[in-house]
UniProtKB/TrEMBL annotation:
Keyword Transmembrane assigned: yes
Pfam families in UniProt: HIG_1_N
InterPro entries: Hypoxia_induced_domain (IPR007667)
Domain HIG1: 1-65
Record key words, sorted: Membrane, Transmembrane, Transmembrane helix
Keyword check for Lipid metabolism: no
Organism: Rhizobium terricola
Top-level taxonomic group: Bacteria
Transmembrane domains' residue ranges: 6-24, 44-62
Protein name listed in UniProt: Twin transmembrane helix small protein
């Protein structure tokens, strides 16, 4: 189970990076402020999910003890 949560956390962290890059490109090209706001909200939600998965993985593995 901890292997599954580790892989899932890595996937979500990759999604965070993709949303961040997309938001930066949107800002550089002078895109819509509404789009930038939606991307920021999506990034925050994905980061919260990633942190929760990392904490779950640590809990399942005993925190590296």
């Amino acid at each position: 189970m901890s292997g599954f949560t580790t892989v899932l956390a890595l996937i979500v962290m990759g999604l965070v990076v993709l949303v961040l890059i997309r938001g930066l490109f949107n800002m550089l090209k002078g895109g819509s402020g509404n789009t930038s706001n939606k991307l920021m909200q999506a990034r925050l939600v994905l980061q919260a999910i990633a942190i929760a998965l990392i904490m779950l993985t640590l809990w399942l593995t005993g925190g590296g003890r």
